[in-house]
Amino acid sequence: MRNGLRNILVVIIIICGFLYLTKYISTFKETISDSNISDQSVNVNNSYKDDETNKDIKSQLLLVNEDHSLEQAYTPKDLTIPNIKFASGVSNEEKHVAGIIAKPLEQLVAEAKKDGIILLGNSAYRSYKTQENTYNNRVLLQGEKLADAYVARPGYSEHQTGLCIDITNQGKYFVKGTKEADWLAENCYRFGFIIRYPYGKKNITGIEYEPWHIRYVGKSAAKYIYDNKITLEEYLRK
Ligand SMILES: [Zn+2]
């Protein structure tokens, strides 16, 4: 009889232990899936938050042209190498972009690929020092007048902002009429980019037409600029 009672107790303890374990495991599973869900929602909330805060809008609309220069010490926030393919021979520095444009740029390149268009990064961030070296070398080779016609003086290149990138294609022949340049011109605004130096706008931008140079300005500004066929200078004046 005593043995019988002891056996029953042992069985009850085992059952209780089993029930406790089952409950513990299911709570554990819930905790894991909850943390996954909250991670995802954080990602969703973070995407394109740049279009929403005033501080970010101000920084993504930074104007650099022959009348507006950057200080030597200016470096972009959160410099990072985006997860895209680059053309051969691109320096490590030129692969970097301001953190704010990395995701939109990756999305643009991925979306192009879905349409059968292969876009390659060619030149993004250039430091003041790099621009200074490039400019000085050109002056040595061709003199100041010709250097000024083709190379921005240090502090006057938009590439120092990290908000722009020159795109190319596999043949490194990125001109109007190629399917890559045409796709970029028609679609980059969807990701917050503009063709910064459009055709026929040199009198406003100070730079000849460059179908390869895209500049991040955020989705709403990009759409307005695309719809109205204007430049960043005109957008900021409106
Ligand atoms: Zn450029």
Automatic annotation (TrEMBL):
One Pfam family this sequence matches:
VanY
Record InterPro entries: DD-CPase-like (IPR052179), VanY-like_core_dom (IPR003709), VanY/YodJ_core_dom (IPR058193), Zn_M74/Hedgehog-like (IPR009045)
Q: Which SUPFAM superfamilies match?
A: Hedgehog/DD-peptidase
Q: Where is the D-alanyl-D-alanine carboxypeptidase-like core domain?
A: 98-219
Transmembrane helix found in the keyword field: yes
**Keyword vocabulary terms for this entry:** Membrane, Transmembrane, Transmembrane helix
Q: Is Transmembrane helix among the key words of this record? A: yes
Membrane-crossing residue ranges in chain numbering: 7-26
Which PANTHER family has this protein been placed in?
D-ALANYL-D-ALANINE CARBOXYPEPTIDASE, PEPTIDOGLYCAN L-ALANYL-D-GLUTAMATE ENDOPEPTIDASE CWLK
Name this protein carries in UniProt: M15 family metallopeptidase
Q: From which source organism is this entry?
A: Clostridium yunnanense
